[in-house]
Specification:
By secondary structure, the protein is mainly α. Helices cover 78% and strands 0% of the residues. It has eight helices and no strands. Helix 2 packs parallel to helix 7, helix 3 packs parallel to helix 7 and helix 4 runs antiparallel to helix 7. The radius of gyration is 18 Å and the shape is elongated.
């Protein structure tokens, strides 16, 4: 229920068509975001090993990662070609889901970036940085919520 709670609550508040559009867009974006999961899962043991040897090595390794730029590039590509993706994966009847891509891509971009940022915190073992990170991303969530007026924030 936890992984599908957005769809359940949306279904209680709207009709089946809106739930279908949201679910379709969410599936596309979740699958693209899943491309970055192996990177983060493979990084943690390597960063732990480097941090045991030297914190400077771990931080330098993290700074050299192309993940944020790769994430930006992939998400921009998905946004620009969202109509093609929708037509290819679903049908032209789902063209209404194109408006749901930008808020979801922004949220998932920050999710991927926050994982990389969390590795910096782990590498430095810095509690103050962790607290700052939590406050910053909660503030950012509130800001995005006010910008989109609660539209498609999940």
């Amino acid at each position: 229920l936890y992984t599908t709670s957005n769809v359940v609550f949306l279904g209680l508040l709207t009709n089946n068509t809106v739930v279908g559009y949201y679910s379709g867009a969410k599936k596309i974006i979740d699958n693209i975001t899943a491309l970055f999961s192996p990177v983060s899962q493979a990084l943690y043991p390597h960063i732990s090993k480097l941090a045991n040897e030297s914190q400077d090595k771990a931080i330098l390794f993290l700074d050299m990662l192309p993940t944020p730029r790769l994430c930006e590039t992939v998400f921009l590509f998905v946004y620009l070609f969202r109509d093609v993706l929708i037509s290819f994966l679903f049908s032209d009847r789902f063209v209404m889901m194109r408006d749901l891509f930008i808020p979801q891509l922004i949220g998932d971009f920050f999710r991927v970036i926050s994982i990389i940022f969390a590795y910096h915190v782990i590498g430095r073992a810095n509690f103050k940085l962790y607290v700052f990170n939590e406050i910053f991303f909660n503030f950012l969530f509130c800001l995005l919520l006010s910008i989109f007026n609660g539209y498609n924030i999940s």
